[in-house]
Amino acid sequence: MTKAEKHNNSYINREISWLQFNARVLQEATDETVPLIERLRFLGIFSNNLDEFFKVRYATVKRIVEAGKGGKNELGGIKAKELLEIITQIVIKQQSESLGILDTIKSKLENENIYIIDETQIDNAQHNFIKKYFVQNVSPALVTIILNDLVQLPNLKDSGAYLAVRMLMANGHKQFALLEIPKSINRFVVLPKQGDKRYIILIDDLLRHCLGDIFNIFDYKSISAHMIKISRDAELDFESDLSKSFIEKISDSVKHRQIGEPVRFVYDKTIDDDTLEYLMTKMEIDDTDSIIPGGRYHNRRDYMSFPSLGRTDLLYDKIEPLPIEGLSFESSIFEAIATKEYLLYAPYHTFSYVVKFLREAALDPQVKTIKITIYRLAEISHVASSLINAAINGKTVTVSIELQARFDEEANINYAQQMEDEGVNLIFGVQGLKVHSKMCVIEREEKNKIKRYGFISTGNFNESTAKIYTDHTFFTSDQSILKDVNKIFNFFDANYKIFRYKHLITSPHNTQKAVFKLIDAEIEKVKKGETGRIRLKMNSISSYVMIDKLYQASRAGVKIQMIVRGICCLIPGVKGMSDNIEIISVVDKFLEHSRLYIFGEDHNSKVYISSADWMTRNIDNRVEVSCPIYNDAIKQEIIDTYKICWNDNVKARLLNTAKENEYRINDKPKVRSQIAIYDYYLNKLQK
């Protein structure tokens, strides 16, 4: 068997697998059990995901083509140029499907007396409101670009939305222009209520209604406007200027991203041929770019913020994050952790315990040092303000902040500068490695000795995402584990040294080796006539090395269950290769983000929480941490909630050779895991 044949038979291409994941997101927009406005928001998530996919993954494949390489080995046996064509065809089909879904949802909203109208449906009262709104809110922010053959087309902003305007002049000539839809203005304009009816107009159609006001100096016979959008390569391009700080280089590179190479051009399929040809020539769109005819509206990611209009009945029921028994906001969190370990499972538990921990550390005179890794901060971050507060109070605060956290670089730069100004010691990762681990260690003086407290997490220390991402955070005062955490911070300072870790599994040092050892132990159990069992939960698995190891375990008879939300290049259920591997994907109200590794049966298992997916970048090119759970009660809690998720037969999709995202349907009692896990913790509190 050739390498290419092995790739084709053993793995699903990463990019195609990702598009299958986004199809699962789109499924939520079609699910009639999902509240209507939430379905619109899933359409927005689908579109936002697609934007990022083109800026990152499509751009990467395009660079392979432009470098004159085939890329078969890296791309699962598919040539790069062929893959670009496959992606474009899949996306065209998905985009068409999404337009149909949008029409269906709009129709259902009308049954709820919510009308999304266009410029042809405006009555006199709405006309007066819109004219006033345009003058006061839109016109001052509007950028209008008049195009002609003598003027070079300005660089269109990455993922910006533009109306391409075509005027047929009185003298028979054509005049083209672009209207940049202002990002500073809400995409959805809520019009005055009329009885029980609510009306919304998109800013796009508001602009169409006001074209005469915008272009009133031109003598035209007819005027039309069609939407276009361009996505650009999001790869950061670093300058070699030695006089610039790392923050300056990242900042300049983020700005440069706005003028990166185009990778996708989306246009309204009803646009005039001469307008389309003019724009594509001006923008130098070529055959390696994904050219996608779309509907009347682009940037459907804006539907993520579709107004609720006070209609809570069309939204998910809100859940109130639960407290953790034994932890209190009225007493010391250090005293609690000194005697017992705790597990926070967001968003079922409130993330406020993390902020409470850091705020207490900032004020406690006995706390001497705080060390923490930061990957993505909230726009308004209480985590960052607590660390700044600690530095002001004289603590030695060390923050490893990842300035290359894609699409959050700007926010991280702003907070990095604030922290640096207040005396926080900043570490900008390790050369060649992103710091993706999520951990904190605090040193506190007790009885003339230093005692460590800390937490390790699967997710970012971000108050906003903690409301919608499922993540585990483990609070501990286990000195042996925290000694290992401290060694990782020493590695940041002296990364030429190789540190030995007694408890933590770390990337890039030993994740593959340690995980292989754990898998081999399960294989050995089967050889001895015992049961070998592996349960995994992660966002993505694309490392062929890790997949091959799981195939080996499957062939040996180890039973493997996997919950994979996103990319899954492993093909389960293939006789003689992966017939002992089952995989589901859960897409629901919350984004499944936690990573869990469980090796062995419940009573004798080894359990880890981790920041690492099983992708090559997480194994070899990032600083990641997997933390063992020794506490029997917490171990059982993780196993219990894993089982609930595994038993989901409402929002779980089967990942199999058919690649069709079939819902898992069986005769067992209905389990919607995200609701069931909340009930699990609620019941624990009531006992």
UniProtKB/TrEMBL annotation:
PTM (free text): An intermediate of this reaction is the autophosphorylated ppk in which a phosphate is covalently linked to a histidine residue through a N-P bond.
Top-level enzyme category: transferase
Keyword Magnesium: yes
Active-site feature positions: H436 (phosphohistidine intermediate)
EC number, UniProt record: 2.7.4.1
Pfam families: PP_kinase, PP_kinase_C, PP_kinase_C_1, PP_kinase_N
GO MF terms, alphabetically ordered: polyphosphate kinase activity
UniProt keywords, alphabetically: ATP-binding, Kinase, Magnesium, Metal-binding, Nucleotide-binding, Phosphoprotein, Transferase
InterPro entries: PP_kinase (IPR003414), PP_kinase_C_1 (IPR041108), PP_kinase_middle (IPR024953), PP_kinase_middle_dom_sf (IPR036830), PPK_C_dom2 (IPR025200), PPK_N_dom (IPR025198), PPK_N_dom_sf (IPR036832)
Keyword presence, Metal-binding: yes
CDD domains in alphabetical order: PLDc_EcPPK1_C1_like (cd09164), PLDc_EcPPK1_C2_like (cd09167)
Domain of life: Bacteria
Binding site for ATP: N49, Y469, R565, H593
Residues that bind Mg(2+): R376, R406
Residues in Polyphosphate kinase C-terminal domain copies: 332-496, 504-674
Cofactor: Mg(2+)
Polyphosphate kinase N-terminal domain mapped to chain residues: 11-116
Function: Catalyzes the reversible transfer of the terminal phosphate of ATP to form a long-chain polyphosphate (polyP).
NCBIfam families assigned: poly_P_kin, PRK05443.1-1
Family: Belongs to the polyphosphate kinase 1 (PPK1) family.
Protein name, entry field: Polyphosphate kinase
Organism: Hwangdonia seohaensis
